[in-house]
Design brief:
This protein has two helices and seven strands. With 130 residues, the chain is mainly beta.
Length: 130
């Protein structure tokens, strides 16, 4: 599903931005923590008071989600890096032992700038995985 390079990049990052869709069709974008689970091939999104958040309710309502993890490897030359994960998500409530999470089941992965260390690359690796 994810390439080794994408997994290494995701493991090196702590913050992403999750986009969800409200019931009225408008979009919301929020900074979140995340981690990849190789055994389930899912990405779990975490956050402060997640169960009480609009993003958690949005996912419970329609399950549509995109997560972007990006940074700048360099500003001179300009070298952005990114992994975007689109898919279906579930809002998993906390149970006293485990905190609540938004569990993303990837369906499409788009990445760029992860292997090009010499210069900015416009070539993206985009593929359906679900």
């Amino acid at each position: 599903m994810f390439t080794d390079v994408e997994l290494a990049y995701l493991a090196s990052q702590r913050l992403g931005r999750i986009a969800t869709q409200k019931p009225d069709g408008t979009l919301q974008n929020s900074p979140v923590g995340f981690r990849y689970h190789p055994s389930t091939r899912t990405v779990d999104v975490t956050g402060h008071e997640l169960e009480r958040s609009r993003k958690f309710r949005n996912v419970a309502d329609n399950g549509r989600v995109a997560l972007v993890v990006d940074d700048l490897a360099s500003t001179s030359p300009w070298r952005p890096r990114c992994v975007e994960i689109r898919g279906h998500a579930e809002a998993v409530p906390g149970d006293g032992t485990h905190p609540p999470v938004i569990r993303i089941h990837p369906e499409r992965i788009i990445s760029f700038g992860l292997t090009d260390t010499a210069a900015r690359s416009s070539a993206a690796d985009a593929r359906d995985v679900g």
